[in-house]
Amino acid sequence: MSITIQAPKQLNKFTVELPASKSISNRLLILNALSYSPHPIKNLSDSDDTKAMLQVFNSNSNHFDIGAAGTTMRFLTAYLSKIVGEWTITGSTRMKQRPIAVLVDALNQLGGKIEYMEKEGYPPLRIFGSSLTGGELELPGDISSQYISALLMIGPAMENGLKLRLTGEITSRPYIHLTLKLMEMYGVKCHWKDNIITVPVANYKPVEAKVESDWSAASYWFEIIALSNPGAAVTLKGLDRYSWQGDSAVAELFKKLGVHSKFSAKGLTLTNTGESAGKFSHDFTKEPDLAQTFAVTCAFLNIPFNLTGLHTLKIKETDRIQALVNELGKFGFILNTNNKDNLVWKGDKKEADTDIEVATYKDHRMAMAFAPAALKHKSFKIADPTVVTKSYPAFWEDLKKIGFEITG
Ligand SMILES: O=C(O)C1=C[C@@H](OP(=O)(O)O)[C@@H](O)[C@H](O)C1
Ligand SMILES: C=C(OP(=O)(O)O)C(=O)O
């Protein structure tokens, strides 16, 4: 199935209710369980990834299919390792290609027992839950921060606590910081200096928690304003001005692409200033989920770019580097990559395809990053539009509300 998307001729001022953050929701569900909290979490995300986590906590089964949700797979692998019982956990075809050995090795060294059910190093997993001894451990910090967040959250429940020594350049660092801040909210303070994180033996204290809006989802609205007419403005609701979400960096980064943003009592208002840089360069090691938004925005603003720090993009919902090369190529943008960690557009173009259908590769961010391009390219198709439910189920409805025509 695919949809045809067409943008309105003119965008005026409008307001959007953003979805709740799935990263925060999935951490709070784990922390609520570990603190035996009686308080329901307020404004929990309605994304597939959070539903996948909730379904596990509401189930009587010992076998779970968490679909395509990376955080759910990683956080639950650690969580279930300390819950007495035998558990199996599987996921989508893609999830079975996303590596998990760093986390499994770590848990096995900390006193856990986890086996691979199919391919060595990848889900599905059989987990024999027991109490974990914990202690000191060295592990790579440059593959996925989710392994580290997963270990940190169960750290206080380990017999000897936990001391992690991270090797390599730490990737997605703000997500580790977010985990530590939320743990602190539940009464457990860790210590992070250089590449060493120390977690004390402690009991979490239940708290009443509310999930703020998702800054990664906000990025598509920054993109819409960047690609629209000067004077266009949107007010985004529910974002935290002092958020621990690393993707809040989007506001500063989009200044270079002609979007001004300002907080008021109503929310965060973005306006198109009509002034953008001649060139865009950024290292996305801290904000990998924003890379697609920037690649598509820059291309359609005709701004040559050099995006670096992209090595983790190859093991996300799809190989996002290759997916961007393929799909921007359909619109005539000739991109270069070392096929490892960068994506470059020097301004080279060829003729765009006729009747474009953007493939989404089961990746919500491919659909959401390309949809705003309708403001620059008159009508094209997007394949498998329902992928957006992974993080932002109301995405298409929200576009329709501001005048996008979405048919099919
Ligand atoms: O901890 C989290 O909530 C996330 C961490 C990041 O993953 P990596 O640490 O694998 O880069 C990010 O891409 C993902 O969408 C959510
Ligand atoms: C990479 C993502 O999610 P996850 O790794 O949790 O599947 C994402 O939402 O962009």
Explain this structure.
There is one protein chain. This protein is an alpha/beta fold. The chain has two domains: 2-19 and 213-407, UDP-n-acetylglucosamine1-carboxyvinyl-transferase, Chain (Alpha-beta prism), CATH 3.65.10.10; 22-199, UDP-n-acetylglucosamine1-carboxyvinyl-transferase, Chain (Alpha-beta prism). The protein is 30% helix and 21% strand. Strands 17-18-1-19 form a four-stranded mixed beta sheet. It has a four-stranded mixed beta sheet with strand order 2-11-13-12. Strands 3-4-6-5 form a four-stranded mixed beta sheet, with helices on one face. The longest helix has 13 residues, at 22-34. The radius of gyration is 21 Å and the shape is globular. Phosphoenolpyruvate is lined by residues 69-71, 289, 316-317, 365, 391.
